[in-house]
Design brief:
heterodimer, A: about 260 residues, alpha+beta, five-stranded antiparallel sheet, five-stranded mixed sheet, 5 helices, 15 strands, about 25% helix, elongated, B: about 280 residues, mainly beta, ten-stranded antiparallel sheet, seven-stranded mixed beta barrel, 3 helices, 19 strands
């Protein structure tokens, strides 16, 4: 039976379904960056975590990619299954869900913030104001991608909005905290990049030897807080000596 | 003395296996060998179970010196094997100590060298595959690099997988999630021309040159992508994402290469033609 490669819209479901090749399918919500939509996607992903047919899943802003362990031959049957799973999830959803908030230390010292001067001038803000505006919000982690451990975060105050550099840097340091447009992000590893760097975190975000290999996951919350150079190097040293208590940087959080 | 020593660098030589599966949502690409058929055959020739990590060579294979006897399996689109400068038509070689193995990639881009019993390798997130940008799995192999043999069990059979027709120009595809955004004119441009593989191509993407395919520019928010996806950026030049591609993309996903066509596509050299053909 041939798969029909078209968008399947289903009554009573907030997403449409498309077979992405023969081994995966895409669930697409309304295409916009919206926290409520993303939270539902993360919840559905969690609900499907034990499904025996699923190889892995990738949540995105407004879509969920589901990879199957075997070739998909009947999309109608699959949609029925997803429909049941979605309804099941909605029935048992707890409104007072506890989330994880990560407190990420950032050093805004000049040696770590190559573009801070530029941002201050462009936005007509003092250093204290920039730091306050950057550390004020609770950022929502929509998804990960681009590099292992790279988070797409929402919630940046528009006063700090700054377009990507027209000429990317050859090298952005690991831990660089930056801004690209209205996106806030952290470089999990050294690589070339066009983000505006305003600080650096001593915390590693990607652990290739651990499972899960990341500190922060899609659906989590992030709050930045300022540290000085001394604290930055203290944390770095603890990491080198395998003495850093990572648990201290996260906590349960409720909206 | 290590079992295997690279005595002359190839162009881009990495260890690959079935890939790093299960971590796409953390931004970790699948990686893994590009031509699954040739890789399967190299392992069968070496007597290895499917999925055994092996060496993937690009354009020019490295010269390998052996300090231990070993059975070696070699496969690609079309390869020429030399042991101590003697050409052999064999692709299963019983290498002796001090032998030097050279492989010429006559046609196609990639060839695979499998070592009987496997290689002693560290794995990262369950895989030995090397991912260029993140350096997961390590670095490409160069002159001076050495490898150890694992001495696992080998079962030599001749039950090879039938290779695809690598000379085929038509690449079968399925419509992708944004296929419906193509105008009639765009579909004509996409399916009625022979694209040329660009020398910018690598393990992240097969870049194509040709008559630009018109794509209405619309702001697409980053969405998940899989290897095999044909993306169409605003410059109208399609690119086919390969195993090392990023896990998120911001361009329209207009087509998806069919699994049977993928090994043929990854063996297309810069300058060679391909056309897209919708699967019936």
């Amino acid at each position: 039976m041939m798969l029909e490669f078209k968008w399947h819209n289903i009554k009573d479901l907030p997403f449409a379904v498309f077979p992405y090749g023969e081994f995966a399918f895409l669930l697409q919500w309304e295409e916009k960056i919206d926290m409520a939509i993303n939270e539902e996607i993360i919840a559905l992903q969690e609900h499907l975590a034990e499904n025996e047919h699923i190889l892995e899943m990738v949540p995105a802003y407004a879509s969920l990619l589901i990879l199957y362990k075997r070739r998909i031959t009947n999309i109608e049957l699959l949609i029925q299954e997803i429909y049941q799973e979605y309804r099941g999830m909605k029935k048992k959803s707890q409104p007072n869900q506890s989330l994880t908030l990560h407190r990420i230390p950032v050093c805004y010292d000049l040696i770590f913030s190559e573009d801070l001067d530029l941002l201050m001038k462009e936005k007509q803000l003092s250093l204290e104001e920039v730091i306050h505006i950057h550390t004020q919000p609770i950022y929502h982690v929509y998804m990960m991608g681009f590099l292992p451990g790279f988070m797409y975060m929402g919630g940046l105050d528009p006063r700090l909005e700054m377009e990507r550099k027209t000429t990317p840097r050859q090298r952005v340091e690991k831990g660089a905290v930056g801004i690209a447009g209205l996106q806030a992000g952290i470089y999990p590893m050294e690589c070339p990049g066009g983000w505006n760097v305003i600080g650096r975190t001593p915390l590693p975000l990607f652990f290739p030897d651990k499972n899960p290999p990341v500190l922060v996951e899609a659906g989590d919350k992030v709050k930045f807080y300022k540290i000085d150079k001394d604290e930055y190097f203290k944390i770095k040293e603890k990491i080198l000596n395998d003495q850093l208590e990572y648990e201290k940087f996260k906590e349960k959080w409720q909206p | 003395m290590a079992a295997i020593e690279i005595v002359k660098s190839g162009i881009y030589t990495t260890v690959q296996d079935e890939g790093r599966i299960g971590y796409l949502k953390y931004g970790v690409s699948h990686s893994g060998y590009l031509d699954v058929i040739a890789a399967a055959n190299a392992n069968i020739l070496a007597g290895n179970p499917p999925g055994t990590p092996l060496i993937e060579c690009t354009y020019k294979a490295p010269a390998l010196k052996f300090h231990e006897a070993c059975v070696v399996g070699i496969a690609g689109a079309s390869v020429e094997v030399m042991v101590n400068e003697q050409i052999t038509s064999q692709q299963r070689i019983f290498v002796e100590k001090d032998d030097i193995l050279k492989v010429v990639i006559n046609r196609g881009v990639r060839c695979y060298i499998a070592l009987g019993g496997g290689l002693k390798l560290a794995t990262t997130l369950g895989s030995a595959s090397v991912h260029g940008i993140s350096q997961l799995g390590g670095k490409p192999k160069e002159n001076g690099c050495t490898m150890e043999l694992l001495h696992g069990e080998t079962h030599l059979t001749n039950a090879l997988v039938h290779p695809p027709d690598y000379s085929r120009i038509q690449i079968k595809v399925f419509p992708g999630p944004e296929f419906h955004r193509l105008t009639k004119k765009a579909k004509e441009k996409l399916f009625d021309q022979a694209f040329v593989v660009s020398s910018d191509s690598n393990r992240m993407a097969c870049m194509l040159d040709g008559d630009p395919v018109p794509m209405k520019s619309y702001k697409m928010i980053s969405s998940p992508v899989l290897p095999g996806t044909v993306q169409l950026p605003s410059d109208g030049k399609p690119m086919v994402l390969l195993n090392d591609c990023q896990t998120m993309g911001g361009y329209s996903r207009v087509l998806m290469v069919c699994p049977e066509a993928y090994p043929v596509l990854v063996q297309k050299r810069p300058g060679e033609n391909i056309t897209f053909q919708l699967a019936e």
